[in-house]
Amino acid sequence: MNGAGTGSGEPVIRRYRAADRAAVAAVCLKTAASGGDATGVYSDDALMPEVYALPYVEYAPDLAFVVEVDGRVAGYVLGIADTEEFIDWYARVWAPAFRERHPVAGPPTAHRPAYTEAQLVADGGDSERMRIPELDDYPAHLHIDLLPELQGRGLGRRLIDALRATLAERGVRALHLGFDAANVGARAFYERLGFHELPSSRPGAPRFGISTR
User: Fold this and answer.
1) What is the separation of C-alpha 67 from the centre of its chain, rounded to a whole number of angstroms?
2) Cα(65)–Cα(76) distance, integer angstroms
3) How far are the Cα atoms of 51, 72, 180, 197 from residue 202, in angstroms, in the given order?
4) First-residue to last-residue Cα distance in the chain
5) What does 103-152 look like in DSSP terms, one character per residue?
6) How far is CA 173 from CA 141, 169, 213, in A?
7) Of the given ranges (42-46, 59-63, 124-128, 185-189), which has the lowest mean pLDDT?
8) For a tag on the chain, would you pick the N or C end, based on fewer CB atoms within 10 A?
């Protein structure tokens, strides 16, 4: 990892800080539409971050790394070392509060996303969606997002390498991830890094895994 930002415009990778929370949520939103900006796609812009980013920095801030450019966060990787333990925590702590905040899907927007708001709200309240058959062999998982301006510069690889090294130091042998099947760039990126498709992967819901070493 690099050190603190210098104001030079050169991106640096550092560990997550509590003050980064809102910026992480913003990056999640701006990359949530198959890698594009999901602002206004759903009735509440908080939904995507509350399902796919904020629970991670709440539960495991020590496994989150961000890319900072001139004092602003423009990308991140968020990790969970033990998905089963995270599922239990999510069910006890995160899901009940999420369901209170979002009891039903809001009114439809003009965007009509394939991943509907009803599905997103249901996923936000359902920890079991993360319980994949391969958890014994791939106990960790991650989410990674970079704003378009930072893509193609090797930063995604460096973020994942930082997380893999941290997990390996803790004795976690492998991790998995899922991604939007419509995001063909993401598939190519993971394959370049050495990820492979897991047996439970499906065409509409790809799942990949990789060792931490």
Assistant:
1) 14
2) 6
3) 21, 36, 11, 9
4) 17
5) SS-----TT--SS-HHHHHHHHT-GGGG--TTTTT--EEEEEEE-GGGTT
6) 11, 9, 7
7) 185-189
8) C
